[in-house]
Design brief:
Layout (H helix, E strand, L loop, with lengths): L11 H4 L8 H23 L3 H5 L3 H14 L2 E6 L8 E5 L6 H8 L3 E5 L9 H6 L3 E3 L7 H13 L3 E4 L17 H9 L3 E10 L16 H10 L3 E7 L11 H12 L19
Parallel strand pairs: 1-7, 2-5, 2-6, 3-4, 3-5
Antiparallel strand pairs: 6-7
Helix pairs in contact: 2-4, 2-9, 4-5, 7-8, 8-10
Length: 279
């Protein structure tokens, strides 16, 4: 990994709560079977001819994304809404692999992902066909080309989803937003849609069970989520930030970060006294 990339201090051993329940394994198997069935249906849609894929209603895609999360045993609560059409940069802080379908449940979007995913078995091909925009995080010189590709997609009226922290955090700590992706919004003249995703369990303000951090494996994280009881994902769609209000990407990134991190959850990361989605 390149030295310029942000690195979160979170690790499974230090941060992540693992469920301890005798019924966890049977429950996880049933949930993962349901998730697998939904993913197979999604892969079939992605592999369909492009004309058929384009005709899929956005509401159906949003519903499918919610079903995937719900099948994993996580309740979903969404407040607010994003513009249904036109170029839009969706940004959120990054905790879990669940963040991806939850952002798509707000509005189906072209995801910005690391280029290694293109070469993953099974998932790589469908990801590319689904319109994922890949970024080579090990080559800083490739970044301008990636920004131009994102700006082109935004100008064409697509929504693009990104996690500007550049790394996953446990949910109790947070990272700062990197600025490059916001340059694409400025170049395309489209708004930024901040989205805040919180994971809770019972009365706990924050649950770290869904976190996918440090040396954690995807399989371990998926099993932990499917084994857990009482998880809820709260998705708060904040007011869009017009890119034209900010002179440069620094100001635009700071405004989006304030929106996403604007509520004080009492964790040791970035604490704020303003209410959620406040700018």
């Amino acid at each position: 990994m390149s030295g310029w990339l942000p690195v979160a201090p979170c690790t499974p051993a230090l941060c992540v709560e693992a469920p301890r329940d005798a019924a966890a394994a049977p429950r996880a198997v049933l949930r993962l079977t349901a998730v697998a069935a939904l993913l197979l249906a999604g892969f079939a849609a992605v592999l369909a001819p492009s004309g058929l894929r384009r005709r899929l209603p956005a509401a159906l895609v949003r519903g499918w994304c919610r079903w995937v999360v719900r099948a994993a045993g996580v309740k979903v609560r969404v407040t607010g809404a994003a513009a249904p059409e036109g170029g839009l940069l969706l940004v959120a802080h990054h905790v879990s692999w669940l963040d991806i379908p939850l952002l798509a449940a707000v509005r189906p979007a072209r995801m910005l992902a690391k280029t290694e995913i293109r070469h993953w078995p099974v998932a790589g091909g469908p990801a590319a066909r689904a319109g994922v925009l890949f970024i080579d995080r090990d080559r800083l010189r490739a970044l301008p080309d990636t920004v131009r590709a994102i700006a082109g997609a935004l100008r064409a009226g697509a929504a693009v989803a990104a996690f500007p922290e550049g790394s996953t955090w446990c949910g109790r700590s947070r990272g700062s937003f990197t600025r490059a992706v916001f340059q694409a919004a400025l170049d395309a003249g489209v708004p930024v849609q901040p989205v805040r995703i919180s994971y809770r369990a019972g009365t706990r303000a924050v649950s770290t069970t869904p976190a996918f951090v440090g040396p954690d494996t995807l399989l371990a994280s998926v099993w932990r989520v499917a084994s857990a009881r009482g998880l809820t994902a709260e998705v708060e769609v904040c007011p869009a930030v017009p890119s034209g209000r900010h002179r440069d990407r620094r100001g635009l990134a700071a405004a989006a970060e304030r929106a996403v991190h604007g509520r004080d959850d009492g964790h040791p990361g970035k604490a704020h006294s303003k209410s959620m989605c406040a700018l």
